[in-house]
Amino acid sequence: MILVTGGTGLVGAHLLLRLAEGETPVRALYRNADTTRKTKHLFSHYGKQNLFEKIEWLEGDILETPSLELALAGVEKVYHCAASISFDPADEKLLRKVNIEGTANVVNCCLALGVRKLCHVSSVAALGDLKYNETVITEETEWNPEKFHADYAISKHGAETEVWRGWQEGLEVAIVNPGLIFGYGFWNQGSGEIFKAVHKGQYFYTKGTCGAVAVEDVVEIMIQLMESNISGERYTVVAENITYENIFNAIADGMHKKPPFIYATPFMTDMAYRLDWFFSKLLFRKRHFTKSMSKSAHKHQNFDNSKIREALNYNFRDIKSYLTKIGEKYRNNHQ
């Protein structure tokens, strides 16, 4: 038996789609029955509605140990995809509770109930900080607690600490650190909102660089790691280091839309996050653009994916053509 947490998110849903094609029974946690509809829609999009019925859905929460214990009964492998993603400073407590405490609960229950192996979905945000003489971020880059980190990054780093604790206590583990993940569906969250923005007519772009990857690559790598004898390792899962400008352009090509044409300077994004803070207080709404997002928009990050390529002899999808393809699918679904 396999258990997937976070099966109603982008990675978890695509993972379930892939796992349901196999012979091993699959179980998935959900907190709200309505959220499973997004996953069901994904299965329908690929014409695999029958596979959705193979999944055993259990109501539960990684913050509620009794429901986790029930979900883990008879389970041999766990894919831990559940996480809270936010760059709003107001969500600091939520991020720490879900990402750190929730992961600790998963690890503890795995140890207590004899689960053999755990695959944890982390983030490149949890990787280390470059020193003055370094230019490329790898799995060995050291985390510097004295440097500024967004609350999300801190929570994912803390979650990894819990996974390493489980490994030291005898649990087989594999950690993946994906960059910005793109994929079909889930347009109202995460990277899906970028497609919405481009479709509506995105005017601004920045020249910062990030690591990007297709969700299918993330899922395939997770499965291969879990089926291997690899344990006690983490891997940077990035197909390419790409500018935000090129991301917008590739998506716009697929949508037959005009690409963003106004360069948002650091001064402009600095003003934008301050104005967003003002209006969030005035209108009592959540933040849409924060200081950490402003910094990331201009930050140049260079991630090295050689470790995972060599470990699995893996070849990533070309991210630009992939973005164009997903952009075209979005356009066809929203005409």
TrEMBL record:
Transmembrane segments: none annotated. GO terms for molecular function: aldehyde dehydrogenase (NAD+) activity. SUPFAM superfamilies: NAD(P)-binding Rossmann-fold domains. GO terms for cellular component: cytoplasm. Residues 2-235 form the NAD-dependent epimerase/dehydratase domain. It holds the Pfam family Epimerase. InterPro entries: Epimerase_deHydtase, NAD(P)-bd_dom_sf, NAD(P)-dependent_oxidoreduct. This is NAD-dependent epimerase. It comes from Flavobacterium beibuense F44-8.
